[in-house]
Amino acid sequence: MSSFSRPVSRRTVLASSVGLASVLALAACSGGSGSTGSGGSGKGTLTVSNTFAPVSMDPALSGNGRAGTMLTPAYEPLVRTQADGTLVAALAESWKLAPDNRSVTFTLRKDAKFSDGEPVNADAAQKSIEYWVKAKGPFSVNLGNLDRITVDSAYVFTVWLKSPNPDLVSVFNAYWLAGNLISPKALADPKQLGTKTFGAGPYVLDPAATVSGKSYTYVPNQYYYDKSKVYWDKVVISVYEDQNSAIQAFKTGQLKVMVSDPITGNANKNNLPSGARILSDPVQWTGLLLLDRKGETDKPLGDVRVRQAINYALDRSLLTKALFGDFGTPTSQLQVKGFVGYDPANDEDYPYSIDKAKALLAEAGYPNGVTIRVGYVSNTLNATQAQAIAGQLVKAGIKLAFTEAQNFGDLNTRLGEKQFGAIIAQSNSGTPFMAQFQTLQPNGSYNTYHSQDPELTRLLAAAATAPAAQSEAAWKAVYKWVDDNAWFGIISALNVTYFIAKGVDAPHPGQNLVIDLVDVKPAS
Amino acid sequence: MLKLILHRLALSVPLLFVVTFLTFLLNALSPGDLAQTILQGQGTPAQVAALRHQIGLDQPLIVQYAAWAGHALHGDLGSSAYTGEQVWDLVVGRMGVTLSIMVGVLIVCLLAGVSLGILSALKGGAIGRVIDVLSLGGLVFPSFWVALVFISFFAVTLQWFPATGYTPFADDPGMWLAGLVLPVLAAGLHSITSVAKQTRDSMSDVMGRDFIRALRATGLPTSTIVVKHALRNASLPLVTVLGLVMVAAITGTVFVEKVFVLPGLGSLAVDATQKFDIYVLQGVTLFFTVLTILINLIVDLSYGWLNPKVRVS
Question: Which of A274, A301, A320, B43 sits a CA distance of 20 to 30 A from A367?
């Protein structure tokens, strides 16, 4: 067979090879740098990766934090939170919180306009905030005690509450979204807010160049009040669910800012492209949430001594170093270092001691140990923690029986059915009054067994009404109580982690929790 | 022929209902639901219940499905529960990416798979064994791992292609092609080896038949014998494999679109599933089902074109 086939096979292979080579050559010649081209004015394109997409582009329905990243270029908030926690002017040039923490009066700047050309004034602010509350989005609970909004003059309005909130002004920052004002014209048809933006930010979403859930493209807002802060011709935020893909795209220069996580940061800290750097600050807690504090379904958890035993059996230093390296800090507190309410003394409450843990279990009537049912949402961060925590607790006779949920909806369903008494989860610290809704209030999403205690209620009420000068002490008292009663088994403060490419300036996230993309600019 | 096509399409209609109902059912049976996902775990039980009522999740499943099917039969596939975008627009907007990958896989399989198969059949020996090894490799290494290796080598080290992302053809044809090379190769690697093996086996069989010897005796050039006679006779099983390759490519795009961050239907399906965005999921399911039916129809029709005996029967 081979005697007559040789010439033909060569030609066939040659033709195919030439075809393939042509495709590869054409592709290679077209460059591999991705969407980093610059626009007409030469400012270039800011390319950003985020780990997930917002559920909606409507500020009333979108998530906060990193989910809200897609809103920051287009929606200017009333105030901005700096890395050190201070509030600075944005659409509001000044504000005054009432001494009883029940109202705040904002004075708007007079030169701001929405991206559709409508003026930003007190009427518009009133309509936008009222819509935000009425839409009943995931964070509307932060203004659930809203009494009314009054328009005091063309550019002055007051938000009145039925009960005090010492962090009321923060509700209107870029993180919590209530201050992301929406044009009144657009509010006539709120459906369009899901895919278009009508904010007063430096950019406006380009729907034609946007693929919902995947890639969001923004162009400058011609009405933005401070043109000097429009640093880019275009901003493109893409969703990279897989951090391996994102890190490769970052290395090739496709991404200028990469939203990442502590595990990826720790794995790549010594292998960054030239001039690139990682910005990272502790803003998040992670660990066990010992939810069944009345022992309804996981009886041992109803005994504070068992919960304390769990805390004594956790070697936080070892766990943190092994799991997160330089991107985590051992802690047992919900408010991590740097945030109001953090008390270094609380971190000394549960020094690692297997003997102490065993003694407490025996005292509680469990000399042979206990088994606790624990659930978590399936992802790398939770799965690795679960194995590490279980490995440590078993030394004290505390066995963990895990249930892996596919997503938060799945976890909540199982929690509703009381399938487990504890979960492994993480969340942000933040301003303590806002943070308490999730973890300490009876109906909080991380308080699914509705735990409450008269002493804690008293401490929370005192902190909510405390004057600014006494606020820190009042919140420390709250978290001291939480720590003493071992409501949680927190192991680490986690660093929010960003990869920043050479040639780009970006601020530290700090207490802003996320990097505000409006402050990301070409290196000076 | 037209009657045959219409008959086959008519038989496919019940299949569309079965597949979309199963999708509806599986979505409903999955833990969690749309209301909880919209509220992102922040809602109180009362808020969740109110939202469930508002979006009709408290209705019996069959009522929900009937409502969707009724609208779908009138050309209304509904809209995303999150963004309000029309499902039809979403599917059409993302179809180009997925079809680009699928057609790319088909072209690469035809060019590389068939060429390697013919070469192996004609030369045998070492090349045949190399193809066997490659085939094993294609089976052993999962697509997403291959994709990451390709990105690391071709995008990061050599910088030949973009690591991730998609550029529409209308924006920049060169970048469009560049962005597709690695996804297509990652999605098609396994298929190339399958096609090569099938081509080799079929060609080896055909090349040993009497009519080939007769053709050689007439003095026809070998190239004519191989391309015009042997390949055509060997292509019936090959067409079946190519049909399967195309159907498998639908699944492959789900992984490849995720790794390469491509805004296609595969990633849309994954997002919709995770977010319980049922109308979007139904729209994508409907599209993929119709596509699978069409691929199978084309495969059947090509049998008739390649083999007159099948056409007559």
Answer: A320
B103 dihedral zone (left: phi>0; alpha: psi -120 to 50; beta): alpha
Provide, as residue numbers in chain A, all residues whose Cβ is less than 8 Å from the Cβ of B89.
none
Interchain CB contact of B111 with A (< 8 Å): yes
What DSSP character marks residue A88?
E
Amino acid, res. A51: T
pLDDT at A20: 41
Nearest by CB to B178, from A32, A241, A412: name it: A32
Looking at residue A316, the DSSP 8-state letter turns out to be H
First to last CA, chain A: 70
- Please indicate, yes or no, if residue B198 is contained in any of the structural domains: yes
Interface test with A, best of B47, B79, B82 (most A CBs within 10 A): B82
Contact B175 A61 (CB under 8 A): no
Contact B182, B155 (CB under 8 A): yes
Location of structure tokens 């909606």: A56
Q: Which amino acid is at A494?
A: L
Residues of A whose CB is below 8 A from B115: 12-13, 16-17
Residues of B in contact with A136 (CB under 8 A): 47, 51
| CB A12 within 8 Å of CB A19 | no
Residue B245, classed as helix, strand or coil, is helix
The structural domain count of chain B equals: 1
Alpha-carbon dihedral B11, B14, B20, B26, rounded to 10 degrees = -120
CB B280 within 8 A of CB B93: no
Tell me the longest C-alpha to C-alpha distance in chain A.
Answer: 99
Look up the pTM and report it. Answer: 0.79
Q: Do B226 and A8 touch (CB under 8 A)?
A: yes
Report how far residue B303's alpha carbon sits from residue A301's, in angstroms, rounded to the nearest whole number: 68
Task: Determine the 3-state secondary structure of A335 from DSSP.
Answer: coil
Chain A interface includes B218 (CB < 8 A): no
User: Hey, what are A103's tokens?
Assistant: 């109202």
Summarize pLDDT for B93-109 with one digit per residue, the tens: 899 999 999 999 999 98
Give the pLDDT score at A64.
57
Could you tell me how many CB contacts below 8 A there are between chain A and chain B?
216
CB contact under 8 A, B123 and A2: yes
Strand-strand pairing, A370-377 and A234-239:
unpaired
Measured between alpha carbons, how far is B108 from A358 in angstroms, rounded to an integer?
64
Assess if residue B285 is contained within a domain: no
> DSSP labels for A44-82?
-EEEEEESS--S-S-TTTS-SGGGGGGTTTT---SEEE-
Is residue B241 situated within a structural domain? yes
pLDDT tens per residue, range A92-105: 999 999 988 899 99
Reduced to 3 states (helix: H, G, I; strand: E, B; else coil), residue A114 is coil
**Interchain contact, A245 vs B119, CB within 8 Å:** no
Q: How far apart are CA B210 and CA B223, in angstroms?
A: 17
Distance CA B242, CA B224 (A): 23
Confidence of residue B77 (pLDDT cuts 50, 70, 90): very high
Q: Would you call A408 and B41 a contact, using CB atoms and an 8 Å cutoff?
A: yes
Show the domain range for B154: 93-248+306-312
Query: Which chain A residue's Cα is nearest to B29?
Result: A410
Considering the domain boundaries, does residue B25 fall inside one? Answer: no
- Helix, strand, coil: what percent of chain B each, to 5? 80, 0, 20
- Residue B8 to residue B212: CA distance in whole angstroms: 36
Which band of pLDDT confidence, cut at 50, 70 and 90, is reported for residue A495? very high
- 3-state secondary structure at position A105: strand
Tell me if B186 sits within 8 A of B146, measured CB to CB. yes
In chain A, what are the domains? Answer: 45-256+501-522 (3.40.190.10), 284-494 (3.10.105.10)
Binary contact (A252, B155; C-beta < 8 A): yes
Joined tokens for residue A491: 């192991």
Identify any residues that bridge with A45 across adjacent strands, giving them in sequence order.
Answer: A234
